[in-house]
Amino acid sequence: MLLTLTRHAPNAADIGYVLGKNPASVFQREFSGGVVWAFYPEVSDEHVTIALVTEIDPIALVRGPAPLTHLGQYINDRPYVASSLTSVALRVAFSSALSGKGAHDERDTPARWVVKLPAVACDAGEEMITRILAPLGYAVTVTQAPLDARFPQWGPADIYSVTLEGETTAHNLLSHLYVLLPVLDNTKHYYVGDDESEKLLAHGGEWLAGHPERELIARRYLRYKRPLVESALARLAERDPALSEAEAEAGADQPSDPAEQAQGLHEQRLNTVMAAIREVGARSLADLGCGEGRLLTLAMRERELTRLFGMDVSSVALARAARRLHVDSLSAAQRARLTLAQGSLLYRDERLAGFDVAALVEVIEHLDAARLNAMERVVFHHAQPKRVIVTTPNRDYNVHWEAVGEQRLRHHDHRFEWTRTECQAWAERVARTYRYRAVWQGIGPEEPDIGAPSQMVIFDRDADAADTLVAAGTETVRQTTS
After folding, report:
1. DSSP tag of 243
2. Quick check: pTM over 0.70?
3. Are 360 and 388 in contact (CB under 8 A)?
4. Which of 149, 226, 264, 331 has a CA that sits 20 to 30 A from residue 420's CA?
5. What's residue 197's pLDDT?
6. What DSSP designation does 244 have?
7. Separation between Cα atoms, residue 31 and residue 159, nearest integer Å
8. DSSP string of 46-104?
9. Residue bearing the bigger pLDDT, 412 or 23
10. Are 144 and 118 in contact (CB under 8 A)?
11. What would the pLDDT profile of 448-465 be if each residue is shown by its tens digit?
12. Residues 6+ apart with CB under 8 A from 135
């Protein structure tokens, strides 16, 4: 398997000091999967090319810790595609630069790199390759290979020629390849245990925390092992340098009305949600995706709420919530009302059962659209609170903010943002599927044609009615009954 890395920069050959490889020498070393060579086929003052060649030992492949089975022992693509074996070869050849020892070398400055991977295995296709690599700043060129060029009727293979071009450091480039080649291949040649989480965080923590597909990357890298994935995602959330959405909105939204300036959008949203909680005389509340505990802080002031449960995937967010709620100094009676717990909305959780109200405040847009069905089953089918309150951004309103505009999302971690029509259609489907009534309304200052900046759907469980969707305070949008 061949991989070439070309650096375009003045005194380009100085990168040899960072990589720990002399351009005049050929590096060769055996590793668990075979033999790896690293050498420089092209060197000049303006650019230098580093080639990595791996020769896979088929016997070691079969006898390895995660051996191939059945026909895979005799027919497989492992010797010539970029995979987890390539990642191991990268670590063997460029251990100092990959580990970060060379990352502080003044010669490892950002430069234009061109990476050529003649054969990348990816079961999810070209779209997956671009989704994973483009957010890191690379221009991605992908060409799919035929299964057999002699027999075009057999169709294409799950193997792609990939070229990456972008400006970065050698350390970052190597860490991207080390983590993401096994993710694209979606197969590992060895057992995945707890140490793999540490590798993911060690080599991906600097950039993966802010990657829009970090959940997908963690799942595929850790081979879908739920405890490892959830732990890794929680630790990655601790490293996310982005501002919270509440802070971002506070900085982005500067309404002209003094009354609106006195109350930010997030405060309006929380107060609107609290009003919907009071409306049904709730005694218990589950804040799902509670973040730093802003809603729970308001809920603690409501004497009628005797049971409060806050859940979030991020341990750091829960720690901040505990500080905001002064958990350590609460009286015994107050402490008995409140539970903070780590968990995911994508998996059934018995702790969510029996609540009067469940609130998902600016949560669903952080889920992959393909995972919404899992969240719906967890909340509406298994937990079945009497009332579910969901808030989410109104994409129609994004044109109001010049910094966001029509094409961009409000937050780097948003997987999607719905228009009012899309949100109402989703609410109608959920209500019909899980036997709830749904009421939709906007939150924040209304503007002609684009509505309010945020939108809220209130679902009330009703065993007798199939579903009802109305726009609260306005004309009826949709209404259906059994």
Report:
1. P
2. no
3. yes
4. 264
5. 81
6. P
7. 24
8. SEEEEEEEEEE-HHHHHHSSS---GGGGTS-STTTSBSHHHHHHHHHHSHHHHHTTTTT
9. 23
10. no
11. 889 999 999 999 998 664
12. 211, 212, 213
